[in-house]
Amino acid sequence: IALHGGLTDELYILGAETGQGKSAFSMYLAQNIAAQGFDVLYFALEMSRKELIARGISATSWKEKKRYGNPVTAGDILYFNYDFKLKDFVRVPFRSYANAARQWFQEYGGRLIIIENDDQGITAKRIEQIAKKHAEKTGRVPVVFVDYLQMLAADQTDRGQADRKTKTDVAVRILKNVSISLKTPVFTISSIGRQGYGKRITSNAFKESGDLEYTGGVLLGLNLAAQIKDYKNPEEAEREIKKAINPGHGKPRKMILEVMKFRNGEKNNDVNLDYYAEYNYFEVDPLDGSALAGSWEEYKEKQTGGDMFAGFAKK
Q1: Which of 41-55, 266-280, 301-315 has the lowest mean pLDDT?
Q2: Is there a smaller number of Cβ atoms within 10 Å at the N or the C end of the chain?
Q3: Taking a C-beta distance cutoff of 8 angstroms, is the pair 274, 283 a contact?
Q4: Helix axis angle, 49-63 relative to 22-35, nearest 10°?
């Protein structure tokens, strides 16, 4: 609803503070698009493929906890934990999340292609080449995700990309051209400047580029709801924000996704989200009437599986 039916052939830029779930939200969209049968190229410039898959399996284990039992975190899958009874480091056995892993690969593995960064670095031009080559070889135009913008490498053949701002400006223009030439959505994450921390994200908070605000067709801000409320004093604000960041085991952070710019649509639409940070899982707040047309139940009936993001790959 907030994006008028889904992603289209446009450049989308999502900004948020560090640790507020930008990558989890981006992967959540990518997975839902892949589940509908669309090819997705997910350029993971900061994290490894293994880490992103572990996060995806964790989110699936949380979503399907009634079917599969106790959910697991990405840390449970990736790392050893100290067992005080055994007095040794142990790993969570695979059998405890095998069903979630199987479901994740069945639903997304066939269409979601995660491309890791390498020692040469991935440039925006290389992303353009890979996306076009994929379309030529398969006959299927991919949806492109870039996680994240500031991690893109500078093109060594372009001396004009010597500073980070120019590099980012050039990358944004190339990615915009990918969305136009291939007629496909390009969704990228951007870090924000520290001047934007602790308050509602605005377009001028996007980091290291003046072109983000102008070139991006859709600018999205992911905000911690508690950070944009009015408080009586700084002490109350600090207390409530800490509580919102760490709501307790199994409880979500209350987030707000805001459409700050929509070149060909209505902006300033807010969507209230629940973010289960421990399990990298997002869902629409079921009590959010402002973002939905009609009742929650009526809205779910219009979506595949009751998922707001199920229709996000429409072109």
Answers
A1: 301-315
A2: C
A3: yes
A4: 80
Structure tokens at 54: 């572990």
Q: Which residues contact 157 (CB under 8 A, 6 or more apart)?
A: none
C-alpha separations of 227 from 5, 20, 134 in Å: 29, 12, 41
Closest by Cα among 131, 105, 167 to 41: 131
- Distance (Å) of CA 248 to CA 21, 73, 163, 225, 275: 17, 15, 42, 16, 12
Q: What is the pLDDT of residues 71-106, one digit of tens each?
A: 999 999 999 887 788 788 888 999 999 999 999 999
Q: Determine contact, residues 212/13, Cβ cutoff 8 Å.
A: yes
Query: Pick from 244, 208, 202: which is nearest to 221 by CA?
Result: 202
Whether 56 contacts 62, CB under 8 Å = no
